[in-house]
Design brief:
- The structure is a single chain.
- This protein is α/β, with parallel strands linked by helices.
- The chain is built from eight helices and seven strands; from the N terminus they run αααααβαβββαβαββ.
- It has a seven-stranded mixed β-sheet, with helices on both faces.
- Helix 5 crosses helix 6.
- The protein is globular, with a radius of gyration of 20 Å.
- The N terminus is likely disordered.
- Bound molecules: S-adenosylmethionine.
Amino acid sequence: MSPYITEDRRDIVRILIKFKEDYKEALGYNSGNLNAHLMNDKIGEPLTSAFLAQIYEAAGLMKPSCSVYHQMTEIINRNFNLKRDIVEIGSGIFPILGHYLRERQLKLGKGSVTVYDANVWTDYPTKAKLVRSYFNSRVSVTPNSLLVGMFPCEATETMIERAEQEDLEFCIALCGCNHSDIPYLSTAEYHKLLIEKIQDELSRRKRLKIEYFPSSCFGNRHRGFPILIAKEKPKIKLFTLPSKTR
Ligand SMILES: C[S@@+](CC[C@H](N)C(=O)[O-])C[C@H]1O[C@@H](n2cnc3c(N)ncnc32)[C@H](O)[C@@H]1O
């Protein structure tokens, strides 16, 4: 069974029409590049292009069970308190994860979401705050903010360093690139090194948990790359013994 709602290339055209002329500016693609992407991605097959995955998602064509953005929102919601300042880093063109998290917050009545990416399309309809620039050490973050990233690529290690410096919780779905200084590391080798480094450097109040996307997101073939979840350890309650037994 196809993991996607649409199996018809005409749906892609419908999506682009929905975005009208905006899509050209928003996507930063000329129609030649776009056609090349469409040729490579067969509708109904697991997507090879994160670019098209974002278009499908932004146009509401993905089933939630197959959508990495919906599933990441669930994972973040399961692991963290959302009633706080959340900073999404490396959203890409469509700030979808930040938007879904903001929608949750609006129901909860508390919190904020700020999205940083020099490529973000600032006309995207969302109540999240969109900042069209890169996140770096000069960007201030309120204490107890949660840093989140969906395949944030070059921003991955920047986020981790910042979270460690300010003892912040974070949730990052890793991409498949090697962002270390060591050339030729395989994806698995890079992820292993990164995870070991985080475990060494994380404050004693935090613990690192690894989760994966459900296999339904990738046509049941695999479960993507690790999702790093750094969160506060549960507080241990100390019970005082009744005075008679002391
Ligand atoms: C793989 S892409 C986009 C992934 C996107 N979240 C998705 O779901 O497809 C990684 C993005 O990270 C952004 N990026 C890289 N370094 C960044 C930084 N320091 N701050 C914010 N965004 C950054 C790039 O502009 C790029 O859009």
